[in-house]
Amino acid sequence: MKKALLSTFIAAAFAVGSNSYALIASDNASPANYPGGTWAGGSNGGSGFGAWSLPGSSGTGGFNGAYIGTAAGLPNYSSLYTDGVAFSIYAGDTTGTGAFQDAFRPFSTGMSVGDTFTHSIAFSYDNGNKGFDLYSGTDGTGQVFSFNINNTGYSWSGGGSAPMTTWPGVRENGVVIDFSFTLTPTGFDYAIGSAQDVGLTQSGSLAAASIGSVKYYISGAGGGDPGNLFLNSPTVVPEPTTYALLALGALGVAGYAAGRRARK
Questions:
Q1: Is residue 97 part of a domain?
Q2: Angle between helices 2-20 and 240-263 (to 10 degrees)
Q3: How far apart are CA 233 and CA 28, in angstroms?
Q4: Where are the alpha helices (DSSP H) in the chain?
Q5: What is the tally of structural domains in the chain?
Q6: Do residues 3 and 245 lie in contact, with contact meaning Cβ atoms separated by under 8 Å?
Q7: Overall pTM surpassing 0.70 (yes/no)
Q8: 90 lies in which domain range?
Q9: Exposed, middle or buried, 154 (CB in 10 Å: 0-12/13-18/19+)?
Q10: pLDDT, average across residues 196-223
Q11: 3-state percent breakdown (helix, strand, coil) of the chain, nearest 5
């Protein structure tokens, strides 16, 4: 009987522990979330986020767009993919100027202290400008963080910068960059890392009220897949204490139920 009760407790703890990571927000470009690989304004795969908004313009003689797919000839992107695909945005100027493409998404639920937002982006060519912004408002107001990539290198909020990754053997195969942002009582702690570029192992803290939305962007870039900005797996997980308490709560409920069954 004791073994049966213990098994019930452990099963409940694992069930809550594994599911709690998806309690706030989670999405990726997989066919399960975007059947047929369709990604358009109003698409809303995954859970915990608002619908995507994909504003853009071809400018005067340029091109722009957004899609779900795979980057040809960039093997390092494999760590970015879910079921072999990721989101991608592109924009380039052929004969004019002003081409851009954004991919904006609000969080359905505001982050609490200790919650962590993670996501990853990937690129190869350093042409144009590409990257992402974070905002405190769900409507894209109150910018609290920005990360930009261009031919002068990387730059981010708070005065952060790093030289551009070398081309031979690295950018020619693609660079994936991972980010995490953990909300604190006064702002958030951030961490940046890349398996392809150890110089991008960076961290810091910035003041902010919260994080309520994210915008990915690209402008003035071309060259097909290597010039595009790829992105995937935006996720918000609860702070550890929250899911520890959930697991303990589940143990208590499971123990009460098991005890009742044992007494019958």
A1: yes
A2: 150
A3: 4
A4: 2-20, 240-263
A5: 1
A6: no
A7: yes
A8: 24-237
A9: buried
A10: 95
A11: 25, 40, 40
The type of residue at 126 is D
Q: Residue 166, Cβ neighbours under 10 Å: how many? A: 12
Residue 72 sits in a domain whose CATH number is: 2.60.120.200
Q: What integer pLDDT is reported at residue 20 of this predicted model?
A: 41
Q: Does position 245 have pLDDT exceeding 80, yes or no?
A: no
Phi, psi of 165 (to 5 degrees): -60, 140
**Cα–Cα distance measured from residue 51 to residue 103, given in angstroms and rounded to the nearest whole number:** 10
- The dihedral built from the CA positions of residue 242, 247, 252 and 254, taken in this order, carries a sign that is positive
Contact yes or no for 103/89 (Cβ under 8 A):
yes
Q: Could you tell me the two tokens for 166?
A: 């070398």
In a domain, 255, yes or no: no
Q: Please report, as a single letter, which amino acid is at residue 193.
A: G
Tell me whether residue 258 is in a domain: no
Contact status, residue 65 vs residue 14, Cβ threshold 8 Å = no
DSSP string, 42-96: T---SBSB---B--EE-TTTEEEEEEEE--TT-GGGGGT-BTTBEEEEEEEESSS
Q: Domain for residue 199, yes or no?
A: yes
Looking up tokens 């202290």, which residue turns up?
113
Residues 253, 130: Cα–Cα separation, whole Å: 49
